[in-house]
Amino acid sequence: TSYALAKGYSxxxxxxxxxxxxxxxxxxxxxVATFVFICIRYYKTMYSAQGxxxxxxxxxxxxxxxxxxxxxxVWMIISIMFLILSxxxxxxxxxxxxxxxSITRYTWTEFxxxxxxxxxxIFTPFFIWFLFEALIGTVVINLWIFTSFAIGQLSDKxxxxxxxxxxxxxxxxxxxxELFETISAVRESAGSLNIQSGTDEYAMFMNQMMTSxxxxxxxxxxxxxxxxxxxxxxxxxxx
Length: 239
Fold this sequence. Notes:
Elements: H1 2-10, H2 14-47, H3 50-55, H4 61-94, H5 98-103, H6 108-119, H7 123-152, H8 159-195, H9 201-234
């Protein structure tokens, strides 16, 4: 009996595994559903038959586009926040409160000090950068969708197909640019280390990466935003 109990505790419980799998699938489904909903609503209200009503509103096209971009970004942020909170509560419940205890164990000042001693990076500016980059990243995702649809609607017969192909091309282009940025950041930080002796390698690399990623995200947003505005203003081709 003791052997069976010990064996039972060591082996994964089928119900527990099923709950975890169901939770993971449900969490992903909520985010994907939000993403798909944004795609469908944007396309229908901008480039389908409903687009005629949208573009006849007594407001500028830029204002309409900005409104849709802001609303879509807010919805994605809300879905991400709920996803993060649900993951935290799930982990905290599974760890019987240890996750929350580990977070509240140190004060903000002490956590900053400990992180600086171990990595050479101060947590507060890193956290602010992370929040700002998360916001810009959400805008990039929405502009990626909008730019794909804007280019796709230029076709007379295959709007959706061209939108999908454009989205795939843009995605791979983003990956290539990010790879080059990472390589460039590594080279620049390595060059700085050769000149400035005593500088912490990890902190140098993180500062370079943070700057490069943020600049790349801002430039990407600006390019796609301009493309959407120009196409919607001069090349609008409704169904």
